[in-house]
Write a structure and sequence with these properties.
Layout: H1 3-19, H2 22-33, H3 50-54, H4 60-73, H5 85-106, H6 111-115, H7 122-130, H8 138-154
């Protein structure tokens, strides 16, 4: 993939994340990156906002990316994952590697720690929006995930 197209997809993903959710941004962006269907699949992460508006759960970037990797690895299969253990294991391994790399890079995977905001607290959520805190938090995570997945894809791993 050329750099211009990659940067265009990443830019659209940043914009999507700033308007909607991290999970939606990573899922839809990665599906676009792989030229995969996005209409029905994109709904899989629509409810995962602000780590379920508590911040006490896994970063939405990782949730959306996990879904995207599973869809990519299983793309074209006529079975459900449990009926094709070899391909299912590949998806599990790739998601695991992403999580480990993310954890190594950022030191945690929890939304509240990553973003520095508690989305169950309306004042904290508003401050996140008003200060555009995503520029120094979530944007870095999204860029890391895209670069990581791009590298794994170019290596033929995903």
């Amino acid at each position: 993939m050329d750099d211009v197209r990659y940067n265009d997809i990443l830019t659209r993903s940043f914009a999507r994340m700033h308007m909607y959710t991290c999970a939606e941004a990573s899922l839809q962006g990665l599906l676009e990156f792989w030229d995969m269907p996005r209409i029905k699949e994109s709904w899989a992460t629509a409810g995962y906002m602000g780590a379920i508006q508590s911040g006490n759960t896994t970063c939405g970037l990782l949730i959306g990316s996990s879904v995207a990797i599973g869809l990519k690895v299983g793309h074209g299969q006529e079975t459900i994952p449990e009926e094709n253990d070899k391909i299912r294991k590949k998806a599990v391994q790739e998601v695991n590697k992403l999580y480990k790399a993310f954890l190594q890079e950022f030191g945690c995977t929890e939304c509240k720690k990553m973003s520095g905001h508690d989305f169950s607290n309306p004042e904290s959520a508003l401050r996140y929006i008003q200060t555009k805190a995503w520029k120094t938090t979530c944007d870095k995570g999204l860029k890391f995930i895209f670069d990581y997945v791009k590298s794994r894809t170019e290596e033929g791993k995903i």
